[in-house]
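Standup notes
- DV: blocked on the single-chain target, sequence here:
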Amino acid sequence: MGKHIQAVWRLSYSADEIPVTVVKRKTFEGIEYRVQSEYFSARNLATPESFGVEGLKCQWSTVPKKNNRAVSNQQELNRQEIITNSKVSDDKAPGLIASYLPGLLNEGYTHLLN
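- DV (later): unblocked, structure below
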């Protein structure tokens, strides 16, 4: 692992699909969970006050910007900006990400998780 990476999880929704990778890093903003697949990317941020989703900066993503925009549901990204108004532990973060991630995909792309 890189010197800034603290943990890595692989989320799977079925045995036949390619897992989504979640990478935990500490940043000046809080604890960042970068969510990356072959087709989309996102960023969850945990602070002492909240946990929610933010768009991943293009320079941090290996997914082309136009692909990520096509797959990602912008309204849901905005809705999930704050998932909870409390601190989230490492035990709960992957579960919250896995639960809310399907909603971040536009309807025509949810098959990417199954």
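- Follow-up: The first helix runs from residue 65 to 71.
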